[in-house]
Amino acid sequence: MERELLLAVKDKHYSRQRVENEIEVVKKILPYIESCNTFCKNNEVFDSRNHRLVKNSNKLREVFDSGTDKSTRYYIICKN
To answer: Which domain holds residue 24?
Structure first.
């Protein structure tokens, strides 16, 4: 899934290089945080047409890869 991320610099003394280093660290950790496995462990997907939770791993992967929009039939429910 595509993401836009805003990094707020709290210290006005951050050098350009320090900001670039922070961006590189974030780029390295985001794929682990936002992986399909992490998504499936932390969320449930509800299919509004079939009125049930999606359990099939291939269908979960499809939902994860496509994301959601306003006209979707799938609803993401956070387990936490």
So the answer is: 16-78
* Integer angstrom CA distances of residue 25 from 14, 16, 50, 56, 77: 15, 15, 41, 33, 29
pLDDT tens for 16-73 read 898 889 888 888 888 877 788 888 888 888 888 889 998 888 888 887 787 766 667 7
Residue 7 located in a structural domain? no
Domain tally, the chain: 1
pTM for the predicted model, two decimal places: 0.52
Q: Do 63 and 72 contact (CB within 8 A), yes or no?
A: no
CA pair distance 39, 25, nearest whole angstrom = 21
Alpha helices of the chain — where are they, by DSSP H? 16-33, 36-42, 57-66
